[in-house]
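Annex B. Sample input.
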Amino acid sequence: MPLFLHRIRQDLSASIVVFLVALPLCVGVAIASGVPAELGLISGIVGGLVTGAMRGSTLQVSGPAAGLTVLVAELVRAFGLPALGPVVLLAGLLQIVMGVLRWGRWFRAISLSVVEGMLAGIGLVIIAGQLYAAAGLTAPSSGLAKLVGLPGALAGALGGSASLASLAVAAGTVAVVVGWRRLPSRVRVVPGALVAVVLAALVTAVGDLPLATVRVNGVLDAVRLPGADAFAGLTDLALLATVPAFALIASAESLFSAAAVDRLHTGPRTDYDKELVAQGTGNAVCGLLGALPLTAVIVRSSANVEAGARTKASRVLHGVWLLLFVVLLPAVLAYLPLAALAGLLVHAGWKLIPFRGMAVLWRTHRGEVLVLAATALAIVVVGMFEGVLIGLVLSVAKAAWEASHLRVEHSDDGRGGVRVRLAGTVTFLRLPQILDSLEALPGDRRIVLDLSGVHHLDHACRAALHAWAERHSATGTESVRLHALPETSRARQAKASG
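Annex B, continued. Sample output.
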């Protein structure tokens, strides 16, 4: 068989697998975000036909993602569904600008602990919220209220037959998804999520269970082109502040997904700037249609790679299959129980929490675990945008503290004096430690302050060391000698130019 025909066949089969994975997730993410199910399907179609056709990453697949459900739900609850389109549109345009300015590569500089903390916080909020949905209950609005009220809500739900049936279907869905991965590879060609949802629909229908199902209207009727009134709402600074939050979080999730997908295959590597433009274009189109924001999704992308995709044709075709489905078979969605979709999202939220990575970090870099945990906790307690900002501030503060790491060593210089050796980075953050150590030295002995191991000496420390040396020399019988004092950057530049 010619090579190009072999690739076409592989891409075609992979696109069907990705379509089957994406279909229930598009619906589930939309419902978890508090918007009509059709808006998730529209975003999935745009992710395939628009973002999928653009350059950037060859094999990663885009669509509505669980990582943005919390932010979307907060936006819709606070400002209403009409505000979603303009915000997503502006966020997409901001992503395009960042890609054109070649900022995509800089997202790799974001602390991995902050990103994983963000995902863990989102995962906790998703799990808590979807457990209410699994029991047929309405979840509280805030993440903290979801977690605090969950035990009592579930305890009360155990007393009702309808809630028990709903919880059983959700638990069975999770069990099928988890257990499906243990089956032989030839069986796992059919996605476990699709099998779980189909089985849940059959059990609900055959058993005539009193469970709520997906409400489906026409996809074209769900398209909401943002009007002048919707854009007028952007004069509200609180609403406008959500635009960079959407853009930054969607970009970070997409580009970190691209890095993960690149490790799964040996094909062309991701161009981060072009991928950022592709994601922004997709979000701009989603905003014009009033749909959910999209990101690259690691679940669909890994399914695409595992199914043998070779080119971007597979992800474009998955968008084609989604479009054909919503045009020809939308009524099928009405048979899907919401409890099954809640089970899928509980499983997706659980996978967002990096348990294994946290265990490794705890053994090697415990400070990173604290940043991760603080970010996740802040997202649950305060909110998405604020939690990410807190994580970034903590990460920068931790880096600054570690950059100022310093060793102070005392030894006899062999001639009756004391040698004090400083090694590391000497900044104002360590100045109290240095001065306390120096001022504790005897004032009647010659002191050599050895700075040969210092990588950087800032202006505040340089001035303080000179002042201390002058005071010690004025009161003692021997003078202080500053050995190998690092040059200032201006002095080094002058020496280089001379």
